[in-house]
Amino acid sequence: MRRWLCQGFGGLLALSLGHSLPLSAESSGGAVSPKTPLGIGVAPFERVAAEGASVPDVATLLADRLATKGVDRIVGPASLGASATAEPSAETVRGWAERSHLWAVVVGRTTRLGRSLSVDVQVRGADDGLVLATFVEEIAGPADLGSAVERLSDQVLALHTPPGAPEEPAPPDEAAQASGSSGMTPFQGDAPIEISAAQLEAFEEDGRKRLVFTDGVRAAQGDFVLQSRRLEAFYPAHSSQPERLVASGNVVLEQLNRTAHCDVATYFRDDQRVVCAGDLAILTQDDDELSGKEITFHLDSQT
């Protein structure tokens, strides 16, 4: 089992449970549609070190971090079928991108220099295989690895994410039609979950990954908000999307005018269902209160 500790992640960690992150209309790699899925491939990084010295798997760390930032699809080093080279030919990159239907491929080299690391990263365009951008991170020690991966992931996403671009609201007539006669707005099950936390740990075994968020966790998807001390995200083998989230420690769930408190809450992504359980789970809605060992939220039907 592989384990990484990444501290200092104070920003938003977006766990995409569906589709679409708005993209800019143009980039140095050619025009892309704002509706184009943001598929990113991360190739294994070339690792350079003295004999017997270890070099962390920065490529896998970066792929895992991108997958928690609302990216529509991530193809990581284990699935891309790419070689560990920092300078692949343009034709090779085009082949990787075409095979996995990507808009860009990230390649790089991690060099061990005593206790420090130097990480050189290139983002290569899918259409021509040429360099869209180059980023370099100098890492003084193990404690700085997490913040370096954080910066690299932000820089990669910034290539196609307009800074501060607001989402366009639906026209009033469309919003009213979507709400239906009951006036209830449908749950946005394909929207990304936005998660803020102070620390992130990543584990991998037999291709299955587990990400653990701790310290002041807050997750939101549409009108659903979850707060807890700890949140675990479980990924199937070779998937960049979690199949299950488990929150524990002073869990508070909110959706519209309902609030629930419990010890442990489990979110099943495919079912859009949250089970809130513990010694005593309490649900309040307006002036009503319900308590028991287990309370289930069906987010799609808001029941």
How would you sum up this structure, described in words?
The protein is of the alpha+beta class. The model is unreliable at 6-37 and 162-184 (pLDDT under 50). Strands 1, 2, 9, 10, 11, 12, 13, 14, 15 and 16 form a 10-stranded antiparallel beta sheet that branches. Strands 3, 4, 5, 6, 7 and 8 form a 6-stranded mixed beta sheet that branches. The chain has 5 helices and 16 strands. The relative contact order is 0.15. Helices cover 16% and strands 44% of the residues.
The helix fraction, in percent, is 10-25%
Share in β-strands: 35-45%
Q: The biggest beta sheet, please? A: 10 strands, antiparallel
Helical run tally = 5
Shape assignment: elongated
Coarse structural class? alpha+beta
The total beta strand count reads 16
Radius of gyration: 21 Å
Contiguous low-pLDDT stretches (5 residues minimum) are 6-37, 162-184
- End-to-end distance: 39 Å
Order of helices and strands: EEEEHEHHEEEHHEEEEEEEE
Average residue pLDDT: 77
Give the secondary structure arrangement, pairings included:
Layout lengths: L1 E6 L4 E4 L23 E4 L3 E3 L9 H10 L5 E3 L1 H4 L9 H11 L3 E10 L2 E10 L5 E9 L5 H14 L13 H8 L13 E4 L2 E7 L2 E14 L2 E12 L8 E12 L2 E11 L4 E13 L2 E11 L5
Parallel strand pairs: 3-5, 3-6, 4-6
Antiparallel strand pairs: 1-10, 2-9, 6-7, 7-8, 9-11, 10-11, 11-12, 12-13, 13-14, 14-15, 15-16
